[in-house]
Amino acid sequence: MHIRRAEIGDEPAIRACAEEAYSPYIAAIGKKPAPMTADFAAQIQAGYVDIAADDAGQLLGFIVFFAKDDHMFLENVAIHAAAAGQGIGKALISHCEKQARALGLPSVCLYTNEKMTANLKIYPKLGYTETGRHEEDGFSRVYFEKLLG
After folding, report:
1. Please, are residues 1 and 54 in contact by the beta-carbon 8 Å criterion?
2. Per mean pLDDT, which range of 43-47, 131-135, 136-140, 141-145 is the poorest?
3. How are beta strands 107-113 and 49-53 bridged, if at all?
């Protein structure tokens, strides 16, 4: 597996991965989760998307992050179901944290939907601390931060 910057040609595979990863949450949330309606083409062109690919170049997962104010904002991470449990998500998040350190940013911030209960367990295991819960854009979001020290 390797991680590289996404190219515009990756957009269909990224969108398919997001659809697969987030579709199971539609019923619990009552609408499509925000990552399913993202403008991935614009995010790719802005340089915000990196992908994890296998040795044959097939997309295994992706991450969307960018510097915002005084931190790195991790907007989205999704892994294909067939690649789940292989440490790909952890590798992508670590990649985001390394990029934040390279820019001299002190933390990575993110949010997830409160209905995505698996995420609420995963992020603390990766060193993230819950910083709040808010309604935003019609979603019940749980905010996390990791200080990079």
Report:
1. yes
2. 136-140
3. unpaired
